[in-house]
């Protein structure tokens, strides 16, 4: 940079400023010409002295555009003067020394091209520079164009040279050196000046067009009176105020093309002269048309999208809303761009936790600040409509050179998906409530309360009926908190086709009525007026043999639920229908069980007395029997044995009936399960040895539980005797005991004949014996495991058959007993 500080060069630059200020050719226009010919937004003619002197400028940002002199920190010319050669920088951000230049950091300039200007001594005193906000690879042609424009000024005359010694400046010669077409015309629009660039552009020589009006030879439009009006308008513009005009020109071969002209007037002894610098803007127009076509295509694509889309500019003004979003917001077709807050005035937003959102929290606002959001969930509320849930993606829109242009937000309506998720989440609550319900009304109330709360609907009812052709009766009513009791919505009795519930009862399927007042039903009109609802939904409840009722729900929202939601509601109603069917079946089963147990008790008592008599008589006869008659004695022994066997069966039947009916209470106490198991195993060893069965145990040191000790011993005896009895070919019987989650778990595994897979579900029913045991001749009645099940269930436990490894045979039974007596905490009844 030492060249910059030479006193001779600095003095020459100061003299050049005074010279250029006095030239007839305006430097601002040359800067503009350079900018336009090289298609960049900025151009400047500068002299480098103690600071940078701007003698010509175009498109510079404030305050540079208003300054005559600027600090050297803002100078590109110093590099050109220092090099005394053209300097081209394609990307300042990639340049290690220039990336922090103030023109880059403060004004966003990314590239520049400059050529030097000299004085008459050949000293570099300044430069002509063009610059842009985008990176650009400068070509040799670009350098040549800028050098040619610089040639208009280079070299700059020395103000110390007397004017008398300067050669005359031929303006026509100057105009012939530039690439921009120049046309001079008089007050009538007749051509009086025509440079070589104009000849190249139109194909006519200066002699061929001289004296002709523009619209006679080179102008396609405007013509005639329109052209006269344009000329008059230009002449009325004060001198020194350039105008930009556009039109359609015509070449010699008849082809037409768009042009843009920089027009200004100047005075002369012969009247005003209209000076026009003309550019062929075909490329620009074609580019603009292509961009417009792309924008139109994009707009049509966006209009056809079902996804909602909103775009705002860098100032936060919403400039694009897709049709689906406009329809949701009920915006007119002729809406105008508005601030984000303008839309917010008609839309309320909540986060997933139901908290209202401020404008600063909106995804679009956050994206405008540079944040990228993916998969955010928010809730929209528009006046007069139900709330809708949306999945939102938002991100800033950034140009190729890193400038932020705005933000885009894409919304997908997930209301139904979220509703189905909530309905699916409330399904276990309904099942639990039905399990603990103390009656039909409580069960129905719990069902509609869960559904209506999930839907956020204010009223719901349960209707029951016996036949689709008969009326239905209101059994339960629910209202959301703050909506009053509302009891009597619709009526307490409805016929087929009356109201929403009667229509669903008649149709036998989910029925939606989106406008209660539109059907002309006085009942529904009264309903809408009295409680403020606008729509209703009826969901049939199906039992084992057909429809048994209707769940009716009412809302202010008139958006019909989707098919998936209706199907989910039908499924929830099916739980209530299954509950009703179970209660009916349970009633039948209980009645049947009572009858069966009464029969067993009656028969058992009637059989027990004669069996006792037969056994007693057999004992007496055996006592008096003659030892010499062995056949007679053998018959008495058989009679004694069979009567006892029959008595044991009767006792087991009575025992089982008492356990199942609850007539035989448990006598609970603290019991050491390990001791009970050891005693049972010891008692079973003789039978095990007779069957060649090895008894193995895996027992903890201690496991105490609260149970009936006699029944617990009876349970273990039954399981062990069964395992040993059904292992006729020997093998092992394993009994394991351990504690699992406050439960005592007992597993009995044998290597016997096993149970066929298709018969396992009947294993614990009374009198059941597997087909393979019957065929093998193993004796038994089929009451042992039934009694075991009754004992386990009386203690609040479970018993089941497990799966053995594929290569194993036999049976595995698992018993789980609570360590403490089970308690049933009935949940409070659901109230409206």
UniProtKB/TrEMBL annotation:
Enzyme class: transferase
InterPro entries given in the database record: GAF, GAF-like_dom_sf, HATPase_C_sf, HATPase_dom, His_kinase_dom, HisK_dim/P_dom, HisK_dim/P_sf, PAS
PROSITE patterns: HIS_KIN, PAS
Entry EC number(s): 2.7.13.3
Cellular compartments annotated: Cell membrane
Main localization category: membrane
Domain PAS: 174-211
Record-annotated Histidine kinase domain positions: 602-821
Pfam families: GAF, GAF_2, HATPase_c, HisKA, PAS, PAS_9
Enzymatic reactions: ATP + protein L-histidine = ADP + protein N-phospho-L-histidine
Sample GO molecular function, one term: phosphorelay sensor kinase activity
Keyword annotations from UniProtKB, A to Z: Kinase, Phosphoprotein, Transferase, Two-component regulatory system
Any single GO BP term: regulation of DNA-templated transcription
Matching NCBIfam families: sensory_box (TIGR00229)
Protein name (record): histidine kinase
């Amino acid at each position: 940079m030492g060249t910059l500080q030479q006193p001779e060069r600095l003095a020459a630059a100061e003299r050049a400023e005074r010279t250029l200020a006095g030239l007839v050719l305006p430097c601002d226009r040359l800067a503009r010409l350079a900018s336009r010919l090289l298609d960049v937004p900025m151009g400047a003619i500068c002299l480098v002295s103690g600071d940078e002197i701007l003698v010509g400028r175009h498109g510079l940002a404030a305050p540079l555009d208003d300054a005559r002199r600027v600090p050297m920190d803002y100078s590109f010319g110093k590099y050109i003067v220092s090099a005394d050669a053209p300097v081209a920088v394609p990307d300042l951000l990639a340049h290690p020394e220039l990336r922090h230049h103030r023109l880059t950091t403060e004004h966003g300039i990314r590239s520049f091209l400059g050529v030097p200007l000299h004085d008459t001594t050949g000293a570099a005193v300044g430069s002509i520079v063009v610059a842009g906000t985008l990176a650009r690879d400068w070509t040799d042609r670009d350098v040549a164009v800028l050098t040619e424009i610089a040639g208009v000024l280079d070299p700059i005359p020395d103000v110390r040279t007397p004017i008398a010694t300067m050669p005359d400046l031929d303006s026509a010669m100057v105009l012939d050196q530039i690439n921009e077409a120049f046309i001079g015309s008089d007050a009538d629009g007749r051509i009086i000046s025509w440079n070589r660039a104009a000849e190249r552009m139109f194909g006519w020589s200066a002699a061929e067009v001289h004296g002709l009006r523009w619209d006679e030879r080179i102008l396609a439009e405007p013509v005639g009176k329109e052209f006269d009006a344009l000329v008059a308008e230009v002449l009325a513009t004060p001198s020194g105020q350039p105008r930009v005009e556009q039109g359609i020109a015509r070449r010699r071969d008849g082809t037409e093309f768009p042009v843009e002209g920089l027009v200004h007037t100047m005075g002369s002894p012969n009247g005003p002269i209209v000076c026009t610098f003309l550019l062929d803007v075909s490329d620009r127009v074609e580019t603009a048309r292509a961009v417009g076509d792309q924008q139109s295509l994009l707009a049509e694509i966006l209009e056809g999208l079902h996804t909602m889309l909103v775009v705002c500019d860098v100032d936060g003004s919403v400039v694009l809303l897709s049709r689906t979003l406009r329809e949701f917001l009920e915006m007119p077709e002729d809406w105008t761009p508005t601030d984000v807050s303008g839309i917010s005035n008609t839309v309320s937003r909540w986060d997933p936790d139901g908290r209202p959102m401020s404008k600063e929290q909106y995804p679009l606002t956050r994206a405008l600040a540079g944040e990228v959001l993916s998969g955010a969930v928010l809730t929209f509320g528009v006046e007069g409509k139900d709330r809708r849930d949306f999945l939102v993606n938002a991100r800033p829109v950034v140009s190729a050179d890193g400038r932020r242009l705005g933000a885009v937000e894409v919304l997908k309506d997930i209301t139904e998906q979220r509703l189905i998720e909530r309905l699916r989440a409330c399904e276990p609550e309904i099942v639990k409530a039905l399990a603990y319900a103390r009656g039909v009304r409580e069960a129905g109330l719990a069902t509609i309360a869960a559904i209506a709360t999930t839907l956020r609907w204010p009223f719901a009812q349960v209707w029951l009926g016996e036949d689709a052709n008969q009326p239905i009766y209101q059994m339960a009513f629910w209202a959301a908190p703050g909506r009053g009791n509302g009891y009597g919505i619709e009526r307490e009795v409805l016929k087929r086709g009356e109201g929403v519930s009667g229509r669903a009862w008649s149709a036998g399927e989910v029925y939606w009525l989106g406008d209660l007042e539109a059907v002309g039903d006085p009942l529904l009109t009264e309903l809408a007026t009295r409680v403020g609802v606008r729509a209703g939904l009826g969901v049939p409840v199906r039992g084992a043999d057909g429809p048994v009722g209707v769940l009716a729900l009412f809302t202010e929202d008139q958006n019909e639920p989707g098919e998936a939601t209706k199907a989910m509601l039908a499924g929830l109603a099916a739980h209530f229908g299954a509950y009703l069917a179970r209660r009916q079946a349970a009633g039948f089963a209980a009645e049947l069980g009572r009858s069966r147990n009464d029969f067993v008790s009656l028969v058992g008592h009637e059989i027990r007395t004669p069996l006792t008599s037969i056994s007693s008589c057999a004992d007496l006869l055996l006592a008096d029997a003659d030892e010499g008659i062995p056949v007679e004695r053998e018959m008495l022994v058989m009679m004694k044995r069979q009567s006892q066997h029959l008595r044991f069966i009767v006792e087991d039947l009575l025992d089982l009936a008492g356990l199942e009916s609850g007539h035989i209470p448990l006598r609970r106490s603290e019991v050491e399960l390990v001791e009970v198991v050891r005693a049972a195993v010891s008692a079973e060893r003789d039978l095990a040895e007779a069957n060649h069965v090895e008894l193995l145990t895996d027992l903890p040191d201690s496991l105490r539980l609260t149970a009936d000790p006699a029944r617990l011993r009876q349970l273990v005896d039954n399981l062990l005797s069964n395992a040993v009895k059904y292992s006729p070919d020997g093998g092992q019987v394993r009994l394991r005991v351990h504690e699992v989650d406050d439960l005592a778990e007992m597993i009995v595994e044998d290597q016997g004949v096993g149970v066929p897979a298709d018969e396992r579900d009947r294993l614990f029913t009374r009198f059941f014996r597997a087909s393979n045991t019957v065929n093998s001749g193993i004796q038994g009645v089929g009451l042992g495991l039934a009694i075991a099940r009754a004992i386990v269930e009386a203690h609040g436990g479970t018993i089941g058959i497990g799966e053995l490894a594929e290569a194993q045979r036999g049976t595995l039974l698992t018993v789980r007993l609570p360590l403490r007596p089970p308690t049933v905490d009935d949940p409070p009844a659901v109230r409206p």
